[in-house]
């Protein structure tokens, strides 16, 4: 092996405080809020420590979908990350699929679903969502009319630095903006929703809804420790009526 060659070891996915990367140590005390079964062998990459939806928030999201779409059976979780939302959806619905472009995230999601006892109700695909949305070849055969009952997405926000933006711009969100995501989901589901930064531009959200033909967008402020944490924005006929 030459001096220029380096062996890259796979990232350790089950951490103690001592093995946790320095930039993630500040999240250690929140590990049971992220996954209550952390000690049973939950996998998290360095990125997932700050990007996974906390368990109680993911549970509340799944319960809201269940309340408003009581006949929901098939759910798709786009950008599934470490499986936080996938797991809670799988507790309530028959079949839940997870999509992520990152193979490490898919590995974590599969493993964490096993820890939570929902692996038999879940399935995963590794790939670029905008490319997958163009082809129906990967869709499960048991979908009614080739559509999911609900599609959920917690897209990348660009890391913790989003907090320092006065207003989060949904039109330039990377790697895909909100309008692109909505357009990709509309052929696959009547109802879909997003986990978005609390400092988003609500006028942008309203404008996107109008452009896509949704007279109403249901917006739910999600809180953690009594403080606003994120916004759940959901589109579709099942979410337009009052609860």
Indicate the topology.
Blueprint: H1 31-34, H2 48-51, H3 55-68, E1 74-78, H4 84-92, E2 95-100, H5 103-115, E3 122-126, H6 129-132, E4 150-153, H7 178-185, E5 192-197, H8 202-211, E6 218-224, E7 227-235
Parallel strand pairs: 1-2, 1-4, 2-3, 4-5
Antiparallel strand pairs: 5-7, 6-7
Q: Name the CATH class.
A: Alpha Beta
Evaluate the radius of gyration.
18 Å
Order of helices and strands: HHHEHEHEHEHEHEE
Overall tally of structural domains = 1
CATH superfamily: Vaccinia Virus protein VP39
Percentage of β-strand residues: 15-25%
Give the N-terminus to C-terminus distance in angstroms. 64 Å
CATH architecture: 3-Layer(aba) Sandwich
Unreliable residue runs: 1-9
Given helix and strand content, the structural type is alpha/beta
What does this structure look like?
With about 240 residues, this protein is an alpha/beta fold. It is about 25% helix and about 15% strand. It has one domain (about 55-240): Rossmann fold, CATH 3.40.50. It has eight helices and seven strands. The protein has a seven-stranded mixed β-sheet with strand order 3-2-1-4-5-7-6, with helices on one face. α3 packs parallel to α4. The longest helix has 14 residues, at about 55-70. The chain is globular, with a radius of gyration of 18 Å.
